[in-house]
Amino acid sequence: MKYACIAETKKGARCRRWAVNGNSFCSQHAKVKSVKIASPPDIILLKIRINKKWAKRFLEAGVSHTETTPQEEKERNYLLQAKKLRRSPSRYGKCISSGVSVFGTEGLSKVWILSALIELLKKGYEITNLHIEDANITLQKNSSVLNIMHNLVINMEKGEKKICWEEEMSKLLGDFLPVCWGFVHVWANPVRNGKVIHSLNIAHREPDIPPKLRLKFSNGLWNFSPYS
Ligand SMILES: [Zn+2]
């Protein structure tokens, strides 16, 4: 399992090298006496892949649908930022990035995410926005579109006002979130417009199988422990 070094670089971003076995630092930061640890995020975006059925339920409960930033535009921004930070945009293969994929390109599988959400709430992060956007993928079979997937995007910010919602929404989230999630990718992005944003890409809701890992926020460094 790959894990990103927890040090902060001089430009204020999390180090992109891998931590060496049994250490939280890469081989270079392990040699430095007083290392600055990567700053916790100001904003956390949980982007949870959902199918049409769940999208319908959330829309009916009052969640709004917003336009997605086109993939090309996102990539242009990542490229610009990577250039500014003198980082390789293809550090993690095909996907263009300027940030750090905390758990490597594979990410985590079979994850219980509620543990991290509870930790975030305890640390003073509030859910400040909830919306649905179209995911930038379309599943196709025999060239006919089978299903257009969506993302449920949950914004969490520290010290900001909690979004108000009906009791129904709490029930719906209570139904939706506490299950095993097939894949979780955590991205720690460099500071942009004065804010550090971490993005969690979460997919494959698997209510019938037991989770293996418990996701931990760990003050923005992110980690995991065995589920049981
Ligand atoms: Zn490092």
Summarize the structure.
This protein is α/β, with parallel strands linked by helices.
Helix-and-strand structural type: alpha/beta
Q: What is the succession of H and E elements?
A: EHEHEEHEEHEEEE
Stretches where pLDDT is under 50 for at least 5 consecutive residues are: none
- Helix content range: 10-25%
Bound small molecules, deduplicated: zinc ion
Number of domains: 1
Total helical elements:
4
Question: What does the overall shape look like?
Answer: globular
In percent terms, what proportion of residues is strand?
A: 25-35%
- Write down the overall mean pLDDT: 91
Number of strands: 10
Taking Cα atoms only, what radius of gyration do you get, to the nearest Å? 18 Å
Distance between the ends: 19 Å
Largest sheet: 10 strands, mixed
Question: What structural keywords apply?
Answer:
228 residues; alpha/beta; 4 helices; 18% helix; globular; binds zinc ion
How would you describe what is shown here?
This protein is of the alpha/beta class and 228 residues long. The protein has one domain (39-226). It contains 4 helices and 10 strands, in the order E-H-E-H-E-E-H-E-E-H-E-E-E-E. The chain has helices at residues 52-60, 71-84, 114-122, 167-176; strands at residues 43-50, 64-65, 100-101, 108-112, 125-141, 144-158, 180-188, 197-206, 213-216, 223-226. Strands 1, 2, 3, 4, 5, 6, 7, 8, 9 and 10 form a 10-stranded mixed sheet that branches. A hairpin with an 8-residue loop joins strand 7 (180-188) and strand 8. The relative contact order is 0.23. The model has no long low-confidence stretch (mean pLDDT 91). The structure holds zinc ion (ZN). The site of zinc ion has 8 residues, from loops.
